[in-house]
Amino acid sequence: MHRYNHIEKLLFCSTLLNEKKLHRKLEGKTILITGASSGIGKELAFVLKDINAHLILVARREEQLLLIKKEIEQSSAKVSVFSADLREIAEMDNLLHFLHRQPDGIDIIVSNAGLSINRSIEKSLERYHDYTRTMAINYFAPVQLLLSTIPLLEKNKGQIINVSTINALLLPIPFWAAYQASKSAFDTWFRSAAPELNGKGISTTSIYLPLVKTPMIEPTAAYRNTPAMSPVHVANIIAKSMYTKNKIYKPWWLFIGQIGSLIGRRILEKILPRLLLKRGLNK
C-alpha cells in the first residue's frame, strides 16, 4: 500500500467514506468495474466487498480476477468475473451479451480500463499502432460499452462513473500525445452526452485524477519519485461518489493548473521546443 509523504498529504486531501450511506445505497445493486484486475479497479472491488451487492469485474487477466473473486466472496459481495480485451470486437460482444442477460440489469458502471503511452513523436513515426490501440481502449471501448448499456442504466436509474485524468483539463504536454488525445476524446464525449443521460435519469460522474501509484505508471522512470495518489484513496473517492452522486471530483489545486494553462499557453509553446532541443529530449 502506498503511504503518503508530507507533500502528498497536502496535495491529496483525505476522503471520509460514510460506510452506512454506502451500504444503504448499494444494497442489492449490480456494479460493473472495468480494468478490475489491478490498481484502482481492484482496490474499488475490495472497498465494496462487505456490501450485499453483485460486482462484475472485467479485465484481460482472468487469473488475477479469479484470485480477487475468491478473496472478496469470503465477505458479503457476490462476484462475477469476465475476462475480456475490450479492444477486440468479439470479446466486447461477449461481454455485452453477458451484461444484457443479467436478471436485475446494471445499476452502476465504473469506466476505469485504460492504457497509457509515454513516447515522443520522433519515436512514434513508425508506430501508428500506438495511437489505434490507445484510442481503442481509452475511447472506442467505453463508448461502445455505454451505448449498449444505456437502456439498462435508464431502467434502473443508474450511474456512470468515468475515471478520467486531469490532463483532459490542462494544456497538453509533450510525449503523451496518444494518451492525452484518447482520454480527452472520451472525456469530451462523456461531458457532451451527460445532459442527455441525466435527462434519462442516469447520473454521471467524472473523476479527474493526477498521477496514481498503479502498475500503469511503472514503466516511466521519471514517475517513481513523483507525488502520486494511492489507488486505495482513489477507490474511496469513487465509492463516495456512488452515494453523493457528485458530478465531478478533481484535486483542490487543479484550478491553478487550469489558470496556468489558459494564461501561460503562448509562453509554454515558445519555451518547450527550445527546452526539449537543449536537453536533447526531442528524440
TrEMBL record:
InterPro entries: NAD(P)-bd_dom_sf, SDR_fam. The keyword Transmembrane does not apply. Keywords: Oxidoreductase. Gene3D superfamilies: NAD(P)-binding Rossmann-like Domain. It comes from the Bacteria. Belongs to the short-chain dehydrogenases/reductases (SDR) family. This is SDR family NAD(P)-dependent oxidoreductase. It comes from Psychrobacillus faecigallinarum.
